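User: Design a sequence. Structure:
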């Protein structure tokens, strides 16, 4: 028996970045659900290698959680922007480096229970220093860390950002 999907979407909030929706749909087992969801345009994250043993990380203040987090440079896709172009733009903005080589490592869905966000992850290599262009709402310190220092931060529970942990795994750093 084939299930006919009847979906309805209701916009609850439409912001600059996120849209909150109520989605009513039928699951593959026939159960009807009412979901609260966030529609997100998607994002990119870069793992920037200065050399085979040194990477760039950010110590970034995140106002939502009220603390500084260790993260890789990342950013939101602009409308109809290809992930690779977003990766190049965000790397320059947040770190002040360009990458001659960007290698696609994969994608993650960080919170599939309530968001459509997909994050595309790249390895950035052959970096060249240029001009950093952080936004006024970004409080960022760029750090040069050895792979052993990064592994130590993970073991001590200092790196808690999920997308960064996934990127460390996809990069074979942890």
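Assistant: Done.
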């Amino acid at each position: 028996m084939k299930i006919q999907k009847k979906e309805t979407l209701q916009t609850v909030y439409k912001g600059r970045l996120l849209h909150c929706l109520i989605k009513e749909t039928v699951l593959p087992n026939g159960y009807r659900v009412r979901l609260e969801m966030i529609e997100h345009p998607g994002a990119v994250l870069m793992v920037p290698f200065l050399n085979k043993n040194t990477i760039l990380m950010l110590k970034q203040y995140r106002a939502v959680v009220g603390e500084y987090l260790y993260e890789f440079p990342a950013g939101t896709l602009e409308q109809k922007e290809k992930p690779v172009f977003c990766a190049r733009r965000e790397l320059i903005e947040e770190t002040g480096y360009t990458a001659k080589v960007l290698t696609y490592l994969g994608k993650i869905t960080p919170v599939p229970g309530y968001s459509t966000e997909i994050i595309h992850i790249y390895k950035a290599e052959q970096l060249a220093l240029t001009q950093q262009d952080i936004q006024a709402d970004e409080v960022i310190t760029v750090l040069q860390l050895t792979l052993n220092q990064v592994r130590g931060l993970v073991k001590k529970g200092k790196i808690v950002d999920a997308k960064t942990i996934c990127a460390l795994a996809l990069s074979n750093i942890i």
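The first helix runs from residue 83 to 95. Strands lie at 8-14, 19-26, 32-39, 43-51, 54-62, 67-71, 74-76, 97-108, 119-129, 140-146.
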